[in-house]
Amino acid sequence: QVQLVESGGGLVQAGGSLRLSCAPSGRTFSSYNMGWFRQAPGKEREFVAAITWSSSRLYYADSVKGRFTISRDNAKNTVYLQMNNLKPEDTAVYYCAAAISPRGPTYYSANYYRAYEYDYWGQGTQVTVSS
Known about the structure:
about 45% strand, 4-stranded antiparallel β-sheet, mainly beta, single chain, globular
């Protein structure tokens, strides 16, 4: 059974940093586009960042641009989300997701921020930023 496992969440003060990791099990995800989403209490799940399978394109939500960096190491079958200068409004459960993207890179480049574009999801890791 395919499973995505996130790690690295925790409690941090505003201005601090965390690095989230996502390590799929049961399958190699080197050919999949990967994304990070988050969901705060009482809010809808929102896009955070995405990376194509080759790392050739990176996408970010405006709210995290300049503070968060997504990367991947296909040799380790792992995707990362480096989060710097964290703010209380970044508090949420963060989810890793994998997209098969059968419609190709052009379609993905227009839909990377849509949750339905992704085929596999992790259970999430809690990030709490205190003020």
